[in-house]
Design a protein that fits this description.
- With 283 residues, the protein is of the alpha/beta class.
- The chain folds into 2 domains: 64 residues, Helicase, Ruva Protein, domain 3 (Orthogonal Bundle); 190 residues, 3-Layer(aba) Sandwich (Rossmann fold).
- The longest helix is centred in the N-terminal third of the chain and has 15 residues.
- The chain is elongated.
- The N and C termini lie far apart (70 Å).
- Belongs to the protein N5-glutamine methyltransferase family. PrmC subfamily.
Length: 283
Amino acid sequence: MLLVEALREAAARLGGAGVDRPEVDARLIAGDLLGCPPLEVGLRGREECDASFLERYRALIERRATREPLHYILGAAPFGAGELKVGEGVFIPRPETEILADRAARLLADKKSPVAVDLCAGAGSLATYLAREVEGASVHAVEADPKAVPWLRRNAEPLGVECHEGDARDAGVLSELRGAVDVVVANPPYVPDGAEVAPEVRFDPDVAVYGGPTGVEFTARLLPVALGLLKPGGWFGVEHDDTTAEATRVLLKEAGFVEVGTLRDLAGRERFAVGRRPEEPGD
């Protein structure tokens, strides 16, 4: 069988299973097996596939046809200027989270010896982005799920990020940094319990997806922690569901944050709330 025929067969299988962009996924999986970029896969379409390749390729395509996320199959997910190793047991970073990461990096850019904390770090998307983009930053990442912590350490520690196993809602977490942090960011579980999700999302750990009956309960409990970690004037940013933008802004204001605002994703949806710790009472 020619490679182009194998690709066509794979795309048909994935399309029949309801996978978005089946041709793209078929090519990415083939490229991963062949050790070449996806563009090169197309250029090699007239090559004959050996039996070993076809066996392995079809097995991976079958995994994707079950709606197992592509990035679990590939073992990595792109984020910012790098990529994160991912697999079963850890939440797959989404590209829209880069909007929050970029805002945090900009807020840290003019700080001397900046300190940042990534709560609910998962695979380390926000923490690793800040470690790469902000020169001289001291970055800390907190994750509670013992299945996710090894992925966090694997991705973040080589970049100098200090990883901590702990609950972002625990008032004692990172107690040594209270009042010393310039920016705190979080991508907590925020999908309302029982909400409809894409088949791929069902492979993400439930503890990283569902945030309570309305989706904001987890966020509400980590806000006092974030506020306590920040220096006066420090900034906090949190990702949320697009249906809970107003509720999240209200929570930030009630927790004591000022200058509360919203960031939108590339589709124009309200997906992130930001706020500042007051410089002093009455600020």
